[in-house]
Amino acid sequence: MQKLLFIILFLSFTASAATFTRDVFPYVKGWQAHKDDMVYTSENLFDLIDGAAEVFLSYGFVDLHVTEYQKEECRPVRVELYRHNSPLNAFGIYASERQPTYSFVNIGTQGYIEDGVLNFFIGMYYVKISTDEPKESGRQAMTLIAGSVSDFLRQQKRFPETLKLFPAKNKTANAEGYVSESFLGYKCLHSAYTAAYEDTAKIQLFIISCDSLKGAQAMLGAALKEFGREIHAGKQTYRVMDRHNGPIYFLQKESMLCGVTHCIDDAKAKAYLHLLEQSLSKGEQ
């Protein structure tokens, strides 16, 4: 009986150890992976990306693994695998470095490729790939390796559900985002989903989903107090003026706090608020 118990415990331990030590990078045929032994965490991320570390930490950064794929007659391809504490935060950091004018590729949940760079996100991971290999051969190498990494991670391909609540009319493609902290520069505003509208005007709509009605009321109250003076613009609608962002329109709908920024046309801003309210109402049905 004791021997049987020992075997069960041993198998359980080895199985969990195998899961824990599973390599984070895949084998890619024709390439040799040379993994950096250093694992970067919140304690030493500044050593690698000093200027950008604070931004990554604000999005629930957990750890970073780095490797270089090498083969003869080709310059190395570097892969940086950033793991975050949630798919939402992985999307947020990816979106913060994405531009709607980039060339997008069907890798991970979404990715984009530019000369020497291919970045994508999937599940809790934000993956940054780079090479000095010339244009076409470099793109082919990065695409091959990126696809292998994406498949190897075995994560769900999914955008945040809240993004579906934004009105489709005039929305700029591939310009949605998520701001985890200090939205518009204010600590009282956080966990904000954003979407851009009208390519030339860069009007922005935002949605903050609070835990409760009281939570939304408290956040709105703190925001209005921060701005000092507000104009009551309608039922549960407020307009404030910020010296950095111009007019900001707030709309509270149940536990949602949402609004419009970077729109100097009062009538247009209210029209967008109306569209946003309609979209939120449909989402509740």
List the helices and strands and how they pair.
Blueprint: H1 2-20, E1 32-35, H2 53-58, E2 61-71, E3 74-84, H3 87-96, E4 103-105, E5 110-114, E6 117-122, E7 125-131, H4 135-153, E8 177-179, E9 192-197, E10 203-209, H5 213-227, E11 230-234, E12 237-242, E13 246-253, E14 256-261, H6 266-284
Antiparallel strand pairs: 1-2, 2-3, 3-7, 4-5, 5-6, 6-7, 8-9, 9-10, 10-14, 11-12, 12-13, 13-14
Number of strands: 14
Shape: elongated
By CATH, the topology of the largest domain is: Protein Transport Mog1p, Chain A
- Portion of residues in beta strands equals 25-35%
> Which regions have little confidence, pLDDT < 50, spanning 5+ residues?
4-21
Please tag this protein with its features.
31% helix; single chain; alpha+beta; Protein Transport Mog1p, Chain A; 2 domains; 285 residues
Structural notes for this entry:
- The chain is α+β, with helices and mostly antiparallel strands and 285 residues long.
- It has helices at 2-20, 53-58, 87-96, 135-153, 213-227, 266-284; strands spanning 32-35, 61-71, 74-84, 103-105, 110-114, 117-122, 125-131, 177-179, 192-197, 203-209, 230-234, 237-242, 246-253, 256-261.
- The chain is built from 6 helices and 14 strands.
- The protein starts with a helix and ends with a helix.
- Strands 1-2-3-7-6-5-4 form a 7-stranded antiparallel sheet. A 7-stranded antiparallel sheet has the order 8-9-10-14-13-12-11, sandwiched between helices.
Task: Give me a quick take on this structure.
The protein has 6 helices and 14 strands.
